[in-house]
Design brief:
heterodimer, A: alpha/beta, Alpha-Beta Plaits, Rossmann fold, 3 domains, seven-stranded mixed beta sheet, 33% helix, B: alpha/beta, L-arginine/glycine Amidinotransferase, Chain A, three-stranded mixed beta sheet, 9 helices
Chain lengths: 422, 278
């Protein structure tokens, strides 16, 4: 039996420490004794996890959060229960187990969050690099270095952290860093004053550009469908974007527009439908496939405008990740999902700010890769995209529910006025 | 029944030269001649019970080496070596390790050196379960680790009276479902655990507990204790055991008695694994 239970008082005692106890803690009455001792000393507790052994020789396990209203009292309680075999998780080294099946972690591996994490090895806390949620932590003893690793990349013999002991997570303080978004604390709302929000986003982009930081844009094809491609091109030329993650569609319709003036067959200048316009994007893809990709198309003069053109001209790295409903796809599209994920992972390591515009799938994928301290702004006409991002743990996301075109138009205007300011 | 096999150590260097329990006082040194006589009498009695005795060589400066019960916990072919809480006794560890290795045991140590564990003094099988005393000498966490190492159920029992600082001074398994117990040495949780786990508990009176009545050596139906435990002996006879006594007052000065002076190498009779029951 394994279950997460929330037992005991849920008071707001500010001093807390998590302790673990294992063994035959039920039939030896050690667990009730520890819980009684906590209460007798004036503390309270919450059982975070309890696994009860099934057979006589099977040990049981409990993880308990001890709470007290003073630090001194907490210390006394921890000392008391330590005598009964409970160990504060932060006073232990982390437990390491070797990868015994390639591409998989040992049972009970520590599953990471996107928060700053450290592990304790030989009494010393070391920072976990490449912080990313839903991974394991591998420790390289030779280099004394720990990092997050997705399970599919686990290699036989690597040492993986198991259990919670010796793992310390420091939640990111949203409001103390990265000035600019304090007022946008609720993750998503359709009722926020958009103008002020856009102004703050513009100021962030402006400041990051000035500081030499890196900004990632994750975008969907609606950017092109709504006629906002030119704003994005302006951002690229202005040095406000340093990397682009998208799918096949954004690039396809951007190129369609560059070649035919339509997006999905609709004229972007008049909104009229062009005869046989539905074929335009296929013809565009075909031309790109014939010439071998976006870069050759730009270099040989086939592609002379648009977002992808600007990326090539301005040396902006782009990763186009494929999906099963892609037309073509363009030769640049990475069709192996794991390879795309891996490239995106590498491409997010040095990112300071991420703008996600009008794409659910790619936004969530990138949200999963980013550590909690990278600011994320998600702009979508559909509030559920932002909600989904938050539900998957990207709590640093602030959302703006609005149509893409007015957002980007306003953003560019704000940046222009910032640039014009003395 | 295969021949019972015990490890003992001659009291050649036995004395009271430090104080690490309330029994010890450097004002009451050991009488070496009397100690040797008492030890030989115990040895003789065990031989009469059909036991085989192996010896660990006595060492100068290790007066408590005579208390071999604290050397290790024996489980089948494995001996988990003690790590003594007091530095005065830590020197014993290497001698016990060497001797147990020589006797053919796979000698293991605790995976953590910051935890203390004092062998069969604090860990006694009764049935399938290893009952383990903690707080005074051994750490509860050490017992948990031993349970993991040996794959056995361990029930840690908190010892609350400094005079009964080792489990074998207040608890003695007789068979897989019977044991001697001195209840005031345990807290209420421990008493309840013992009552719920062992069907027959023979309680020892406070006066006889002070005579180390619980520190008995069990060889088959024979139960050997210090002199001065008539009530216990009567109870034992009633329950079909054959109590025997021999004076061990010299060793009481150091806080030990019959059981402390022996380590059962082939496993205690009360252990199911020994009886082939588990």
């Amino acid at each position: 039996m394994s279950q997460d239970t929330h037992v005991g008082s849920s008071d707001s005692a500010p001093f807390r420490e998590v302790a673990e106890v294992s063994g035959h803690i039920i039939d030896s009455l050690i667990l009730p004794k520890i819980l009684d001792a906590i209460k007798a000393a004036g503390g309270s507790f919450q059982i975070l996890k309890i696994d009860v052994g099934q057979n006589l020789a099977d040990p049981s396990f409990a993880r308990i959060e001890v709470r007290a209203d003073t630090e001194e009292k907490l210390g006394k309680i921890i000392k008391t229960i330590s005598a009964h075999g409970a160990t504060p998780v932060l006073k232990q080294d982390c437990r390491l187990r070797p990868v015994d099946v390639g591409g998989a972690f040992p049972e009970s591996f520590y599953a990471t969050t996107n928060q700053r994490t450290e592990i304790r090895v030989d009494g010393e806390w070391i920072l976990v690099h490449d912080q990313e949620m839903d991974c394991g932590i591998v420790f390289d003893a030779a280099k004394n270095r720990a990092r997050c690793l997705p399970m599919c990349e686990a290699v036989l013999g690597q040492s993986v952290v198991v259990g919670h002991a010796g793992v310390r997570v420091t939640p990111h303080e949203r409001n103390t860093q990265s000035a600019g978004f304090e007022f946008m604390n609720s993750a998503v709302s359709t009722e926020k004053p958009k103008g002020a929000a856009v102004r703050e986003i513009a100021r962030s982009l402006f400041n990051i550009r000035r500081a030499g930081g890196k900004i990632l844009l994750v975008g969907g094809p609606a950017i092109v469908h709504t006629g906002s491609g030119e704003y994005l091109s302006w951002l690229i030329r202005g040095g406000y974007l340093h990397r682009l993650f998208a799918g096949n569609a954004l690039a396809v319709h951007d190129i369609e527009q560059a070649m035919f003036g339509t997006s999905l067959g609709v004229r972007l200048d008049s909104g009229g439908i062009v005869e046989a316009g539905h074929e335009h994007h296929l013809r565009a893809i075909n031309r790109l496939r014939r010439i071998g990709g976006i870069r050759p198309a730009v270099e040989q003069g086939l592609l002379t405008s648009g977002i992808m053109y600007e990326c090539v001209k301005n040396n902006i790295d782009y990763i186009l990740a494929g999906s099963i409903r892609d037309d073509g796809p363009l030769p640049d599209v990475v069709t192996d999902a794991l390879e795309a994920q891996s490239l995106m992972r590498a491409g997010t390591r040095d990112i300071d700010f991420c703008l996600m515009i009008a794409t659910t799938l790619h936004s969530i994928a990138v949200g999963n890769l980013l550590p909690a301290w990278v600011k994320v702004v998600c702009v979508d006409i559909n509030p559920s995209t932002v909600i989904k991002l938050n539900d998957r743990g990207s709590f640093q996301t602030t959302g703006l529910v609005t149509d893409v075109e007015p957002f980007l138009r306003a953003l560019v205007e704000e940046l222009k006025s910032l640039e014009a300011a003395p | 029944m295969p021949q019972p096999h015990l490890l003992m150590c001659s009291p050649k260097h036995f004395d009271i030269v430090y104080e690490i329990n309330p029994w010890m006082s450097r004002q009451r040194r050991a009488n070496p001649v009397l100690a040797m006589q008492q030890w030989r009498a115990l040895e003789q009695m065990l031989l009469e019970c059909g036991a085989k005795i192996s010896l660990v060589a006595p060492q100068p400066d290790l007066p408590d080496l005579v208390f071999t019960a604290n050397a290790a916990i024996v489980f089948q072919n494995t001996a988990v070596l003690a790590h003594f809480r007091h530095s005065q006794r830590q020197g014993e560890e290497q001698h016990f390790a060497a001797r147990l290795g020589e006797a053919g045991f796979q000698v293991q140590t605790l995976p953590r050196t910051d935890l203390f564990f004092e062998g069969a003094g604090d860990a006694l099988f009764c049935g399938d379960t290893l009952f383990a005393g903690y707080r005074m000498r051994s750490d509860a966490l050490a017992h948990q680790l031993i349970g993991e190492m040996l794959g056995v159920r361990v029930l840690p029992l908190e010892l609350i009276d400094p005079y009964y600082y080792h489990l074998d001074t207040c608890f003695c398994p007789l068979t897989p479902d019977a044991a001697l117990i001195y209840p005031p040495a345990f807290d209420t949780y421990g008493r309840r655990v013992l009552r719920e786990s062992i069907s027959q508990l023979i309680e020892v009176s406070p006066e006889e507990a002070r005579r180390f009545a619980c520190n008995a050596v069990v060889v088959g139906q024979t139960v050997l204790t210090n002199v001065g435990c008539p009530k216990l002996h009567a109870s034992l006879r009633e329950s079909g055991f054959e109590p025997r006594e021999t004076p061990l007052d010299e060793f009481m000065k150091a806080g030990g008695s019959a059981k402390c002076l022996t380590l059962r190498l082939d496993g205690e009779d009360a252990a199911n694994w020994k009886a082939g029951l588990s």
